[in-house]
Write a structure and sequence with these properties.
Mean pLDDT: 95
Strand content: 15-25%
Low-confidence stretches: none
Shape: globular
Strand order of the largest sheet: 2-1-4-3-5
Number of strands: 5
Distance between the termini: 26 Å
Largest sheet: 5 strands, parallel
CATH superfamily: SPOUT methyltransferase, trefoil knot domain
CATH topology: Alpha/beta knot
Helix content: 25-40%
Radius of gyration: 14 Å
Length: 141
């Protein structure tokens, strides 16, 4: 079974972001074991990366993938025997350079800058979309 961890610096306070994250975590439950781990804004995110995980750092300078391309990437990783994925979302200052260097993949959602709280919802939604694409669901149109 796929284990998915989203490590986030900073805590959600807004009820609408919390509700959106909970909804996508619930949906992801059909495809994997998913969790979001919140750390303090200045927390050591690298220390919390699960052992053996394929690590993706979310950062603006990262590679851009379409939703189907992300689905293919996740499928390729599964075919290589990867069963643990970890996505890193920095706080308001982003991720430290040493954390980005630790990542197996740097991924960008856009050239635009988004609040890290919204980025969390977007990452969870895109992971749900990618896994639903791979499962043949009609969610992705």
């Amino acid at each position: 079974m796929l284990h998915l961890t989203v490590l986030c610096q900073g805590r959600l306070k807004e009820p609408y972001f919390i509700a959106a994250c909970q909804e996508y975590l619930k949906r992801l439950g059909a495809y994997c074991k998913a969790e979001v781990v919140e750390l303090a804004e200045d927390g050591d995110i690298a220390a919390r990366i699960p052992k053996g995980a394929y690590v993706t750092a979310m950062c603006i300078e990262g590679q851009k993938l379409s939703s189907p391309a992300l689905a293919r990437k996740l499928e390729d990783l599964a075919n290589q025997g990867v069963s643990r994925l970890c996505f890193l979302i920095g706080g308001s200052e982003g991720l430290a350079e040493d954390v980005k260097k630790r990542a197996d993949l740097r991924l960008s959602m856009s050239d635009m800058t988004f609040p890290h709280h919204l980025a969390r919802v977007m990452v969870l939604e895109q992971l749900y979309r990618a896994l639903s694409i791979n499962a043949g669901s009609k969610y992705h149109k």
